[in-house]
Amino acid sequence: MQASDFKSDQYVRFCPGCGDHAICMALQKAMAQIGIPTHQVAVISGIGCSSRMPHYLNTYGFNTIHGRGGAIATGVKTSHPELTVWQMSGDGDCLAIGGNHFIHEIRRNVDLNVCMFNNRIYGLTKGQYSPTSPKGFVSKSSPFGTVERPFIPAELVLGARGTFFARTLDVDVPTTVDCLVAAQQHKGASIVECLVNCVIFNNGTHAWIADREQRAEHSIILKHGEKMLFGANNDKGLAVEIDPKTFVPRIIVVAADDPRVLVHDAHQQDPTLHRLLALMGQEDHDLPVALGVIRNVEAETYDEAVNKQIADVRANAKAKTFDELTATLETVYKE
Fold first, then answer.
1. Are β-strands 289-296 and 219-222 bridged in parallel, bridged antiparallel, or unpaired?
2. Is pLDDT of 334 > 70?
3. Beta partners for 252?
4. Residue 324 confidence (pLDDT) above 80
5. Phi and psi dihedrals of 167, rounded to 5?
6. 96 near 130, Cβ under 8 Å?
7. At CA 40, angle to CA 35 and CA 45, rounded to 5?
8. pLDDT of 114
9. Which residues contact 309 (CB under 8 A, 6 or more apart)?
């Protein structure tokens, strides 16, 4: 299959320069690489710039109301487990009004692929601060700077016992494609945080890692089974050190040839190291931001469990169908 097979005939209405263009293109490439026919794919969204995505993909789609994409996506996957279901959402749509649905689809481990576009602003509603905007951020709804502390999406995902978390940049299409393919191959709730630029209302929000000249020093692409190396010449590595005062583990930067350099294990069940990696560079810039698949572990999925339970109950029930049930009730009523 080709990426063009997944392009709809609709004009893409993202602003020129918006990072959503790149994610849309990467998603089409990933879907082609996965090779699932278009009629077996459903794309669900809420409201927001990124939530326009169902219109631009040649698949089944549903543009729902603000924050409710997760609820609809859960219903679609549970009632039609044979479908591949993608959920498109922004940091406002997903983490504010849709926050409750978001944490519970993760907790339940519904077999969904969630792309959370994080530009740290409300773009479609014209520039209000969002749940991921940094403290002190000046916007139309916080002219003196927001006093709120931001969510770190990875922290929410791991706190909700997430089984898959990846992070990618809009300007790095190859890594984005790899993350999206891995998300689809994972059985369970797959969350991909897409760091995107809003050229109109929050231009350059991820510039310190998105800029080509700085990216190698300020980010690290994690790959399962490979050493955690970064830097323009791959001359730096990541290791764990125990703080002698607090006995709390922390990530440190060491030389690439240091024997302490970690090898990434995305399949490790204990989330402690995954959490440390996911939080790097989020509140300070002393450590690189982790990109790629950070966590990828297996667990029973909600949709499988629900449908197995239905099958078990049906197998042990006297009435196998609704008609049989009504006939039984009618007999009891007459008696």
1. parallel
2. no
3. 239
4. yes
5. -140, 140
6. yes
7. 105
8. 98
9. none
Q: Can you tell me whether residue 73 is helix, strand or coil?
A: helix
Residue 335: predicted pLDDT: 60
249-255 β-sheet, strand order: 229-230, 236-242, 249-255
pLDDT at 13 over 80: yes
The β-bridge partners of 254 are: 237
Alpha-helical (H) ranges within the chain are: 20-34, 53-56, 69-79, 91-92, 99-108, 153-159, 173-185, 207-210, 212-218, 272-279, 302-316, 322-334
Length of the chain measured in residues? 335
Residue 89 dihedral angles phi and psi, to the nearest 5°: -155, 155
* DSSP assignment letter at 129: -
The whole-angstrom separation of Cα 32 and Cα 2 is 5
Q: What is the pLDDT of residues 180-222, one digit of tens each?
A: 999 999 999 999 999 999 999 999 999 999 999 999 999 999 9
pTM of model > 0.90: yes
Task: Average the pLDDT over 43-53 and give the result.
Answer: 96
Sign of the torsion formed by the C-alpha atoms of 297, 237, 174 and 200: positive
% of the chain with per-residue pLDDT over 70: 98
Structure tokens at 43: 């794309």
pLDDT of the residue at 17: 94
pLDDT for residue 330 is more than 80:
no
Cβ atoms of 195 and 173 within 8 Å: the answer is no
CA separation for the pair 177, 26 (Å, rounded): 5
For residues 115 and 180, the answer to whether their CB atoms sit within 8 Å is yes
pLDDT given at position 277: 97
Q: Which amino acid is at 237?
A: G
What is the DSSP code (8-state) at residue 95? I
CB 277 within 8 A of CB 222: yes
CA 120 remoteness from chain centre: 15
Residue 97 is given by DSSP the state I
Structural domains of the chain in order of their starting residue, each with its CATH number: 3-232+265-296 (3.40.50.970), 302-334 (no CATH)
